[in-house]
Amino acid sequence: MADYEHLTHTFQPVFNQDSKILILGTFPSAASRAQHFYYGHPQNRFWKVLAALTGENIPEGIPEKKRLLLDHKIAIWDVIQSCDIIGSSDSSIRNVVPSDIHKILTQAKISAIFGNGAKACKLFESYALPALKEKADSGKEPAWTPKDPIHKLPSTSPANAAWSLERLMKAWHEEICPFL
Q1: Any idea what the CATH number is for the domain that residue 101 is in?
Q2: pLDDT tens-digit map of 17-48
Q3: Annotated catalytic, 116?
Q4: Exposed site from 40, 67, 96, 110, fewest CB < 10 Å?
């Protein structure tokens, strides 16, 4: 059995001041860490779903992926800045340090946050949301006060085999499009 590694997120979020929605994952997979960019596992359906959602071709390289996101006012990041993890197993995550999501919320026009899967939502609610509330309670920072702090999307991970690509596309379209 593999051992836990303490890892730190090594690449930046993708967003600009015009970003309207933020899609959060948990922590980069081993394939994503090797590529230094989001959703790098070849069987992860994230880029296929976003291409269908936006009417674009499936982006191949990092510049094309960034362009797709920014052209459609989509920001992406992960909930976790550092943690102990075994390989790419979200279920093994422990000793979480959340990402500073507040940074995006103050620099962009985010109207909704989406979690790519139940684990991303759970980690957001356990770690990131309390940090956002703490900053707001200090009176120094604006509060993130939407009706729903995070909207759960079905995971695009290959581990979520119960969801076909078509079903994922439909669910993501229904959730995200009202905010774009």
Answers
A1: 3.40.470.10
A2: 999 999 999 999 999 999 999 999 999 999 99
A3: no
A4: 67
